[in-house]
Records
---
Amino acid sequence: MNQLDLIYQCKNNNRNAQGELYQLYKDILFGLCLKYCKNTKDAEDVLQDSFVKIFQNMHKFNAKGSFEGWLKRITINTAIDKYHQTKVKHLPIIEEITEDVFLEESTNEFSLDYLLECIQELPNRYRLVFNLYELDNYSHKEIADLLKISVGTSKSNLHRAKKILQEKLSQNKIKNYG
Amino acid sequence: MAKHKDIGKTFKEELSDFRKSPNAKVWDKIVADLDKKDEKKKPLVLWWKLGGIAVAILMLVGIGYKMITNKSMLNNQKIITKSKLLDSIENESNIITKVNNTHLIDTLQIDEITNSENIFVKNNNKGIKNKINKRSKNHQKKKVQFDELIVVNKNNDVIKLNKEITNNKVAFNNKSENKIDKKIIINNNISEQKTSIKTEVIEIVKNQEGKKEETKNELIAIEDALDIVNEKTKSKKEWEVSVKGAPILYSSLSGGSSITNELKNNTKTNDVTLSYGLSVSYPINKKIKIRTGFNAINLAYKTEQVSAVSILNAQSLTNTSLESFFVNDITELGNPLENRIDLTQEINYYEIPLELKYAILDKKLNIETIFGLSTLFLNNNSVIVNNETDLGSVNNLKEVSFTGNFGFGFNYKLTKKIQFNLEPSIKIQFNTYKDNVDYKPYFLGVYSGFSYKF
C-alpha cells in the first residue's frame, strides 16, 4: 500500500490501515513526545492522544504539505495542550539576556539518553520553548502565540533553558573528567 | 583553544531525529479510544439520516390527524356532556362574579338549562351575558354579539360553537308579532380573515303550536345556520397540490471546488439544469401554510482547464476510473502533464422539503415568503470529462444531506381553485460532503407551476 492509499484507508476508518500507519510513525513521534514531556509516562499519554487526534482528523489532511510534518505538528500541539492543562504558573520571569550560551565543543561526549534527560528535567515551559525554538524551528512569535506568553518571555525562557542545560552538561563533564 | 558551539545546535544535531519505540500497550489504548469515539459517533450519524425521514413522516401524520379531527369537530361538540357544560358555566360565572358583582347572576339559571331547551350566548369579555329568552312575549328585534354559542336541545345534546365564528353577529328578528314567523339572520363577518362570508338568511315559517315547539324549531334553525357558517369557515382550510418545475443554477458561496481544493482557482461555469416535482400544502392558520412534497433535482457545474496533475491526487476521485482515463485516453491527446480538460460534475438528488409559507399579501395576487429545510437523498453523481467520457462517481458526497431554503411565492388566482405559481428561491446546502472540501454549494431556482385547491 502506498502512502496515499494508506491515508485514504485511514480516512475510511480502516483499523488495519491505522495500525500500519501507527507502526510507520510511532518511533519518530514517540521520540518527539519524549523531548516535549517530562517523563516517559507523559510522553506515552501524549502519543496516545496524538494518534487518536490524527485518525479523527485525517480528512483534514490535504496532500499539499508533508504528511510527516502534519503528524509532527499535531503531536507538538497535543504536547502543548497537555502543558496548558498542567500549567505551573510560577516561573522566574524575564531576565536580561546578556550573552549567548556556548558549550565547549567536543563531539559525541554525551549519550542521547543523557541529553534527553537534561531536556526532560527542564521546567515545563522552558522545555517547550527550547524544543520549539531550537529543535523544531518555531519563531519566538509563534511560540508566544502557542504558549500564550509574550515574545519577551519566550526569549528569556529560551535563554534560561540554555543556561540550565549548559550548567548540567558542564557539571557532567566535571564529574566524568574532574 | 577549544571551539565553542551554541548549546541549541548541539542538542539539535543529536536529538533532531531522535526515535524510540513506545510501549506496545499504547496502541491498544489508542484502539480502545477510537472504538469508544466511533460508538458515540454512530448513533449521531444514524440520527442525521433518520431525522430527515422522520420529520417528513411526522409532518404528514400531523396533517392527516388535523384533517380527521377537523372533520369530526362538530360531532365531538355534540358529545360534550351537559354536566361538563354546567360545570364550566358555573366555574366561569364564579370567576366573573368576583371581578364584577353586577354581572350575569340573573342569567345563570341552571334550573332552566336542566329543564328546558336553551340557548346561551357567551361573550368572553363579559362572561355569560345573555340568555336569550325565547319565552319573552316581547318579540322585539335583538342583536347579540357573542364569542361562544351554546345550544342545549331537547335530547340533551350540547352544541358548543366557538372560535370558528368569533365575532359573528346573530340577530333574532321577529318579522311580525302576530304571525310568529321567524327570521334568523346570521351575519358572519370574519374580520380577522378579511374575508366576508355573505349573509345567510334562513326563513322558517311555523304554525303556532305552543311556545315549546316554537323554541325547538328555532333551535334547529340556528343549528342549521351555524352549520352553514361552519362549513364556510371550514372551507377556508383547503389542501393545495402543486406541480412545478424550475431551471436551476448551481454554485458555491465560497468559490472552491467540490472535487478537490486544488481546483479552487479554475474557472467554473454553471450549467442550467432542471428540478421538478409535486408539493402539498395545508394552512395552519390564515397567514401560514405548511408544505412538503417530493422533487427531483439535477445539478451540474463545469470546471475548465483542469490539468491532469492537479486531479490525480484528488481523494474524492479515488473510486473513479481516472487513472485508466489518464493512461488510455489522455495520452492519446498529448502530453498528460500539459493537457487540459473540462471536468463536469453532475449530481442528482431527491428532495423532501418541509417549509412554511407566510402570506404577505392575500388578494387576487397572493405573495408569500417561504422558508424551511429540505432533506436531500443522493441518487446519482458522475464526473464527465470534456462532455463525453464518464469517469464514474465521486466518493465525498453524503447519501443524506440538507438544505436551508428561502424564497418568495407569487400566486395568481386564475380561478377559485386554480393558481399560477412563481417562486424564486435559494437553497443553501449543508452537511453535503464527507471531507472538508472548500465548497459551500447552493442552488438558485425560479420554480413555476400550477396549484389546485381541494
Note: The domain at 112-177 of chain A is CATH 1.10.10.10 (Arc Repressor Mutant, subunit A).
---
Amino acid sequence: MDLLLHIANLFLLISFSVKSMLWLRALNILAGGFFIAWAVSYSPPIWSSVAWNILFGLVNMWRIYVAILERRPPRLSAEEQRLHKAVFSELTARDVRSLFDLGQWENGLPPEMLCEVGTVSPRVWMVADGEITVRKADRMIRTIKPGDFVGEASFLARKPLAASVVIESPVRFLSWSTQDLERFMDERPEVASGLQRILSACLVRKLDQVSQAA
Amino acid sequence: MAVQSLSKVPESFRKCRVIDRAGEAKSIAELIHERVTLLLFMRHFGCIGCAEHIATLAPRFVELDQLGVRIVMIGCGSPRFIEPFIERQRLVGEPVEVFTDESLTVQRQAGLGYGHWGGFGPRGVFEQVRAFVRGHVSGDVEGDAKQQAGALLIDAQGIVRLYHQSRSLGDHVDHVRLVDAALSVCLNANPELI
C-alpha cells in the first residue's frame, strides 16, 4: 500500500514543479486522491488524513472553478466592443464590463438640459453616438463627439460647471453618477488608474483645443 | 514655519538648494516657479523601498507630464550617484529631473521623517521583504539611510496641493491619489474646461 503513498507524493512533486497555478491545483487534487486512498487502505484507516485531504481538495476545486470563471471573456454588445476598443482600451474587457454595468445607457432627444452652468455635475457623460453641446449663455463653447467625456472636469475637480451641458440633436450616451464612479474608483484602484489615464487624455485633448483656439 | 497641505510653501523651503548630476545648484523656488511641480523625495539612492515606489509611479510620469506637471526627484546622496540611479531605475528618457541634497536641509524643511525606525523597525523590515518579493533589489546605501521619503505636489501659485510624509520605507504616496490631485490642479488652473 506504500505504492499509493509514493504515487501521491510523486504527483505532489510534479505539482510543485509546474508554473501554472491551475495545473498545480489540479495535480494537488490528484495527489490528494491517492493520499486518501492510502489513508483508507491503512489498517486502521487514518481518518484525520482523509478529512484533511478532502478539505484541501475542496479548497483547490473552488479556486479552480473561480479561475476558470475569470478566464471566460465577459459579454460585450457590438456597441460596447466598439467603445472598448476606441475609448477604454487601457482596461480589460472584464473591467469595462463592470464599468458599463455601473453606468446608464440613454438616448437623448433635443432640447434637453443635462446640467446647468454653476452646478456641480451629478453625472459624467460619454457620447457613444451623435454629440452633446456645451454652452455658456448663448455661445456654443464646444461639441462633445463620440468617445469624449463631459462633466469629468467637474467630477475630478469637485467644482461647479463653467458652462451648461445641453442636447441639441439626437444623441446616444452612457453616463455614470459621480457618487457611483467615485465609489467604484475607490474600491478598484487598479481600474481607477486606467480610468484616470483615459480621463486625463480627454482633458489633455480639450486643453490642446483651448490653446489652439486661443 | 513648516510645509503644510493647502498652504503656500514657506520662504525657508523655497530658499533651499539642491544639486543636479552636473553639480549645479538650484533653489526650490526656481524648480517650482510658475509651474505645477511634483517633488518626490527619495530615501537614499540605493533604497529598495524607493525602487518599489518608482516602479509604481513610473507608468504615470508621461500622464503627469502631459498635464503640465514638472517631476523632480530629490535624493540625499552624493551627486555622483545620480547618473547610476537614473540608469538603475530605468528613468532614462522619462520626464523626470533628479537632484540631491546631502546636507538634508531641504528634507528637514519639508518636514520629512528622520530615524532608523522607518527603515529597520518591524514595519520597515516587513516592507523591505515585500519589495524584495516584488522583484526589487537593495543597492548600497547612497545617502543617509535614516532619511525618510515623501512627496509634495505644489501648484503654480506655490500652494501645496498634496503632502505626503512617509512613515516607513514602504509608505509610498498613492499614485491614484497623486494623479487625482494633479488633475484637480490642472482643472482649477483651466476653469473653461468642462
Note: The first strand of chain A starts at residue 104 and ends at 108.
